[in-house]
Write a structure and sequence with these properties.
The radius of gyration is 19 Å and the shape is globular. The chain has 10 helices and 11 strands. By secondary structure, it is of the alpha+beta class.
Length: about 325
């Protein structure tokens, strides 16, 4: 096989209280990677697409090429390749942009080599792509982007991933406010988190995580929404980075959203909504942001049951 093409979806990490261990793939945006072998060991990278601005094209800094190189390394292959990355997942929005690129790069490399690695091994490779792009690996982004549906990180070191296909139907309203962000937004959003947490608060957080997992496994939509809205540690620390976050959350819940929280490191927020009710909730969120003098782009979507996948090879 000389060339392959693969894509991987955007994701919502944390899902409220599931900081660094829970994630969900969503429809609406996918990053695409075309990978072809070259003679020798040189690596060439080209970045294009609606969200390409600011994405590194250097092989050692691009999350897709770093992930692909890691796949080659684990497979014991020393080959050169040309990688074309088409960026569709918005950068810096909290929707797993670098993770989607890394997942697509790792998946494409594995296809090109005849699929020597498992999905769990590809998570490890994609995490290295994340590290190159934003300073640290985020498994709760790359795992759902590879697996699709919900993923739970059971062991960060191995890593060990539990993939769960959604059994409940719901819509997701994603609102991305246009706010000024630090250059390394993800790193900054981690610096605002508390270093120590009071024991009683930690117990409440653990109960929320238990509710999150139980509701996903049981297909309990009401419980899932409640869990999403019950983050007592991360959300309060990061809420101040999003103008009017608490007002937006109160408005969304009043208009029928089952839960709302911050997507990944933000600034996007996401609301869990019953089928058919997303339009009303989306408009209410837009109005609330506008009342604060903040423009927000709105995406109405749903969980993606499909993660990274092979695509038909298009024109070079």
């Amino acid at each position: 096989m000389k060339a392959v093409e693969a894509s991987a979806p955007a994701t919502i990490a944390n899902l409220g209280p599931g900081f660094d261990v829970a994630g969900m793939a969503i429809e609406g945006f996918r990053d695409w990677v075309r990978l072809e072998l070259l003679p020798g060991e040189d690596v060439e990278v080209r970045v294009e697409g609606a969200a390409a601005r600011g994405v590194a094209a250097q092989p050692e800094r691009n999350s897709a090429s770093v992930a692909a190189l890691k796949v080659f390394e684990l497979a014991g292959e020393r080959r050169g390749f040309r990688l074309r990355l088409r960026k569709e997942v918005p950068v810096g929005a909290g929707l797993g942009s670098s993770g989607a690129s890394a997942a697509a790069g790792a998946y494409a490399a594995n296809l090109l080599l005849g699929e020597p690695l498992t999905l769990q091994e590809l998570v490890k490779c994609a995490a290295e792509g994340e590290r190159a792009a934003c300073g640290s690996p985020h498994l709760d982004n790359v795992a759902p982007s590879l697996y699709g549906g919900f993923t739970l990180i059971l062991d960060v070191e191995k890593p060990e991933i539990l993939g769960i296909k959604p059994t409940m139907e719901f819509e997701v309203v994603v609102a991305t406010p246009r706010v000024r962000l630090p250059e390394n937004k993800t790193e900054y959003a981690r610096r605002v988190l508390p270093e120590k947490v009071e024991l009683g608060l930690m117990v409440r957080q653990q109960a929320s995580v238990a509710r999150l997992v139980a509701s996903i496994l049981r297909g309990d939509l009401e419980g899932f929404g409640k869990a999403v809205s019950s983050d007592y540690i991360i959300e309060p620390a990061r809420a101040k980075l999003i103008p009017g976050f608490h007002r937006v959350k109160e408005t969304a819940l009043r208009e029928g959203a089952l839960g709302l929280s911050i997507s990944g490191a933000g600034p996007s927020v996401f609301a869990v909504v019953r089928p058919g009710e997303a339009g009303r909730v989306a408009e209410a969120i837009r109005r609330e942001f506008n009342s604060l003098g903040v423009e927000a782009s709105i995406l109405v979507t749903k969980p993606s049951t499909e993660g990274a996948r092979r695509e038909l090879i298009g024109d070079p």
